[in-house]
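Message: I would value a second opinion on how I read folds in token form. Give me a protein, with the fold worked out from its sequence. Write it directly below this note and I will take it from there.
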Amino acid sequence: MVAALTEIDRRILDHLQREIPLVPQPYRDIAARLDITEQTLLDRVHALCGPPPAPIRQISAIFDSKTLGYQSCLVAAKVDPAAIEQAAEVINQHPGVSHNYHREHAYNLWFTLAVPPDSRLGLEQTVRCLQQLSGAHQMRLMPAIKLYKIGVTFDLGVEGAAPTPTRNARAIAGIPVALTESARAMIRVLQQHLPVESRPFDNWARQAGVATHELLAAAVRYRDSGMMRRFSAVLRHREIGVSANAMGVWIVPPEQCDALGHLATQYPTVSHCYQRPTYPDWPYSIFSMVHGQTRADCEATLAAISRASGVQDYTSLYSVYEYKKVRIKYFENDIAHWETAR
């Protein structure tokens, strides 16, 4: 269901999806940019958050798993179509599964998985366990070999919208950083949904055992180093009218991967682009996630990339159903508890 959005709602969402100011009163700063009162902004953000059709899923820090020391991976599964819902339910019980989609392909269930540095099972053994528990015929690990683009920012039709901040090269390289227990405590609170109130960071700072200025200074460091991709709102794309998304996958000779990957990043409707491994039954090495109001929009983008690159061997895997889409809760004990139960 598409949310009924006013012009000011669209302007608010455009600001929130790009970057929340890391200051004691972030909503006051955003309100000043929009030339509205802070209370008006707070009232509208309250209305825009919540279950569907509210368009804001969460406002929080978006961390890079690898720089936190986590192992993460996209996983493709072949599941009996008649048992796909049961399989998805089993897979979703793992706390490290953040996204899980039914897509149109023989590999019909696609999920992302992350495990912490101290995981007893590790990534590969966890996938084997999930395959056994779910009854999947096959699971393929699709780790990112190279990242060309990441950043979901939707076009809300706002004139003069600012570009989304780019990521730091350290995060793109996935270099883990050493974290103190104090840093972990601050990460735990920064990954929560930001309260919609005038001074939302104050209570978080108390939870982390630091002053507000210390929490915000740490958040700025995390952002500037690339450990935090950004602090922003995550929007529900269907609720803002972006109803189609296709995972465009490409058969590319190894020497042409970089050229295609960099080309795909130039298209605004491409939110993610990676190089991933191939298998005998999976020859596609470049993954480009495309969003549009319709499937025709997605196909137009992929066709344009094909024409510009000269690469003709590609296919589109459309999302049929979203079984799970959440943020990973870093440095909690939930994954350890799941592993212990196995």
User: Anything to note?
Assistant: DSSP finds twelve helices and eleven strands in the chain. The mean pLDDT is 93.
